[in-house]
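Narrative of activities, Objective 1.

The group set out to show that a structural description can be obtained from nothing but a protein's sequence at a throughput compatible with the screening campaign. Below is one input-output pair from the validation batch, recorded exactly as produced.
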Amino acid sequence: MMVSARVSLLAAVAGMLLGLAGCGSSGASGSGTSTGARASTPARSGSSSSIPAPAGAVPSRGPVPARFAATSVTFVSADEAFVLGTAPCAHAPCTAVVRTLDRGQSWVGLPAPAEPVGQPGLAGPPAVWGIRFATPEHGFVFGDGLWETTDGGDRWIRDAQPGGSILSLAVAGGQVLALTARCTPGGGCAQPAVLQRRALGGGLWTAVDKIAVGNVIDSNDLIATQAGVAALVNGRDVLVTGDGGMTFTINPLPCPASAQRPSVAVTSPYGLALLCTGEGYTGHTTKRVYVSRDDGARWAQAGTPSPDGDAGTIAATTTGQVAIATESAASWLFYSGDAGSSWRIVNEQYDGGAGWADLGFTTATDGVVVHGPANGDGNSTGRPGQLFLTSDGGTTWRQVSF
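Output recorded for this entry:
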């Protein structure tokens, strides 16, 4: 049952800051609600100085490495994209970044941070697992640290802050939003995570709120963005910001009490789509989709997708097409052309549950997803690492060759 009374976001964050100042560890936090206006949140500053990447020659742009496998993707326009991935190589780490200017018809190899591809909180050395670009020149690679480029990926600088592992990163409203946690090799990631923000142009990082994210090993998609708006789930609430995290609207989710790992998508400046999953049985989960036109103040149940797959990720266009990526013994993409009311399976991969990453839309018709993202240096785990694109709002998907 939802709790109707909530303390203010100001009080919750103030408590969070005291906890951080006292011991630097994570703890529980409360959430406030503001349906008519976005409530301001206090700031906590940290160092934003940068340190150079490891010494060595910066590789020139060249061909895509043979047997390149994708880990994460980011589009900066309908046609231009950057992909973080890895390929077998003679001298580790084997991480690479590739770029396209023509929506995957051709690719060029770029330098990459000198860290192996991996996953948060698993055994092994520090790793990277995500890439996001704000403009064709200004982008970020994240994982157990943050690397930044302002020249289109020719050079990467490691930022000293924010500390810890970055589970998800997004750029919205002129701000960089980072969801950070303390992750240790083989020990998982401490809960809850901390949402932080920084101006895109640089400066100090500010702690915004503590976020309950659950199991995050397979997802970079915890922060959804579109139309200048960012949204993320915090336990039983959804947080929505239209100014890059300076202020938030917070509202309760309509998911049943048994739901696990809800996923949210932004559909318009005040519109949301929500996937609630739960009641699992033999590779299936009951799925419910809800939509809202007012930042989650009111929700309407839209439809019930196929139970195939466990927890999933939802993404949507601004014109009513909605997609879900899910997996268990196989991996599936679901599609709705009527704002989530009716659903059908449009892509099925018999891959043992390799899963997906970075499902999203860049226009009303163009979308992208990574199938079976590579999660080991040199793709030592033999993942598919494939890039799929749609040009019809998610009705059909095609694999792109690197």
